[in-house]
């Protein structure tokens, strides 16, 4: 894939954005930028930030547009210019989608495609209920489908796996509501721009990755 591209991965919580990006980036030199991971890292490092946003996050609500944009810009500034970008969890509101149109050219990237991972609510509830994440490298596992070799331990770095506070059933419902109310309109927004590529993401992440490779013209 050519230099200077950005792909946006759009989809409900549990659509498998992070996992699919993991597969796609094995074929392309893509840097994965997950705003959720950026927020969690900042929460660990900065207790004032933690007081400001952790409550919202644990209630399944979105964090303010300005805060997330600031973190995104900081992260993009550290990524070498020759790397493509895979945006995971950004944009999530119309305001963020508008901001992204300014941010990408500033970082010498252009939006090539928006990959919309379409999942049913049933799939989301199954996936998020079993999700475990590495505290150290953020790798994602699932106690049903994608188990680590040793229970509770990351295959990649040996870090401890944990269940996110916002993956509890009552919070998942609220996150889905936020998604429907604030994020889902972006599907039409990008469709109108001719950038949307929809994938049925109820199957395995490798199937989604295959469909994406085909769309991007790779075997
Ligand atoms: P994720 O890891 O993508 O599921 O994100 C976890 C949580 O971080 C979300 O439920 C929001 O509270 C917050 N978050 C992540 N990305 C964004 C964003 N682009 N805008 C607002 N809040 C976000």
Describe the structure.
The chain has one domain: P-loop containing nucleotide triphosphate hydrolases (Rossmann fold, 3-Layer(aba) Sandwich). Helix content is about 45%, strand content about 20%. Strands 2-3-1-4-8 form a five-stranded parallel beta sheet, with helices on both faces. It has a three-stranded antiparallel beta sheet with strand order 6-5-7. Helix 1 packs across helix 9 and helix 2 packs across helix 3. The chain starts with a strand and ends with a helix. The model has no long low-confidence stretch (mean pLDDT about 95). The structure holds adenosine monophosphate. The site of adenosine monophosphate (AMP) has 17 residues, from helix 2 and helix 3.
User: What composes the largest sheet?
Assistant: 5 strands, parallel
One letter per element, helices H and strands E, the order comes to: EHEHHHEHEHEEEHHEH
The CATH level-2 architecture is identified as: 3-Layer(aba) Sandwich
Helix content: 40-55%
Portion in beta strands: 15-25%
Class by SSE composition = alpha/beta
Distance between the termini: 12 Å
At the third CATH level, what is the topology name?
A: Rossmann fold
- Ligands bound, unique: adenosine monophosphate
Average pLDDT confidence is 94
- Count of helical stretches: 9
Rounded radius of gyration (Å): 16 Å
CATH superfamily: P-loop containing nucleotide triphosphate hydrolases
Could you say which overall geometry the principal axes of the C-alpha atoms support?
globular
CATH class wording = Alpha Beta
Q: Number of DSSP strands?
A: 8
How many structural domains does the protein architecture include?
1
Spatial order of strands in the largest sheet: 2-3-1-4-8
């Amino acid at each position: 894939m050519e230099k200077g591209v950005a792909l946006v991965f759009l989809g409900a919580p549990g659509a498998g954005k992070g996992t699919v990006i993991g597969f796609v980036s094995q074929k392309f030199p893509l840097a994965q930028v997950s705003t959720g991971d950026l927020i969690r890292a900042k929460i660990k490092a900065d207790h004032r930030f933690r007081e400001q946003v952790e409550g919202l996050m644990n209630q399944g609500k979105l964090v303010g547009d300005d805060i997330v944009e600031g973190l995104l810009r900081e992260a993009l500034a550290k990524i070498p210019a020759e790397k493509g970008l895979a945006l995971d969890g950004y944009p999530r509101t119309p305001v963020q989608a508008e901001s992204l149109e300014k941010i990408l050219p500033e970082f010498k990237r252009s939006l090539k495609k928006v990959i919309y991972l379409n999942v049913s609510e049933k799939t989301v509830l199954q996936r998020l209920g079993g999700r475990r994440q590495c505290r150290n490298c953020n790798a994602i596992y699932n106690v049903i489908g994608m188990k680590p070799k040793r229970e509770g331990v990351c295959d990649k770095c040996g870090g401890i796996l944990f269940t996110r506070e916002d993956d509890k059933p009552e919070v998942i419902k609220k996150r889905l509501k936020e998604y429907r109310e604030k994020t889902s309109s972006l599907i039409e927004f990008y469709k109108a721009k001719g950038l949307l590529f929809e994938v049925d993401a109820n199957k395995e992440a490798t199937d989604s990755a295959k469909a994406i490779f085909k769309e991007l013209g790779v075997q």
